[in-house]
Amino acid sequence: MSALAHMLEDRGLPTTVLALVLPQVEKTRPPRALFVPFMLGRPVGEPNDAAFQRRVLMQALSLLERGYGAPILEHFPDDNPSWFDRADWQPAMDLPPPATPRTAADWQAALRAEMALVLPAWERFKARFGRTTTGLAGQPPEAWPAFAASFLDGALPTVALHDTSALALRFLADDLKALYGEAVQAEGGPPSARQIDGWFWRRTVAGQFLTALRAAAMVSPNNALKTVGGRFFVPTPYLPMG
User: Fold this and answer.
1) Residue 95 falls within a domain, yes or no?
2) Structural domains in the chain (count)
3) Crossing angle for the helix pair 193-203 and 205-218, nearest 10 degrees?
4) Digits of tens for pLDDT over the chain (242 positions)?
5) Same-domain pairing of 151 and 183
6) Range of 37's domain?
């Protein structure tokens, strides 16, 4: 985005950048940038908080009042609202403590059993909010356990929407995280992003399954699968220690 900002400015179009990674924006030095200390993927803060999001946008747009010259980098003054835990929050469904399956067949069965408990809550979320961010996988949720588990046995399946196995599994992983993140919010007030992440990665089979898929991808002879597994399956704070 910083390179694009430089190009547009050179053509006479003023720009401002919302920056989520401080070392990157310090290195690329766009003409104007507002660093926001929020989660990746949430450059204006927590969803459904229009007033806060407007504050972020207005501060970013105010940088356009500055002339073109030395690069401008300002810091948004408030902490990330998505890290404020809600003391009264409870997940919308009760899941049994996740076991640790050993074989691909066991992983498939465990994820399928857990998803049977999660999918009804997901349907309630969609009815409540009228939306979902899933849809990248190119196949229905019921097909995900078998498709994903086959990678643990060394298979490299594809789907019609994605012509490589690496992309197919990457977008399935994205949809799996999105589905669980939506389902857990089917009832009550919104949790913080940290609460959703902690619940998913520490208390669900799905979170453990993606960790196992990442481990398998990292030793795969398929370089594309190794790349997406290392970069996109599991966030750094939730990688296994050691």
Assistant:
1) no
2) 2
3) 70
4) 778 888 888 888 899 999 988 888 999 999 999 999 887 778 898 777 888 899 999 999 999 987 766 799 999 987 666 567 888 899 999 999 998 899 999 999 999 999 999 999 999 999 999 999 999 999 999 999 999 999 999 999 999 999 999 999 999 999 999 999 999 999 988 888 889 999 999 999 999 999 999 999 999 999 999 999 999 999 988 998 76
5) yes
6) 2-82
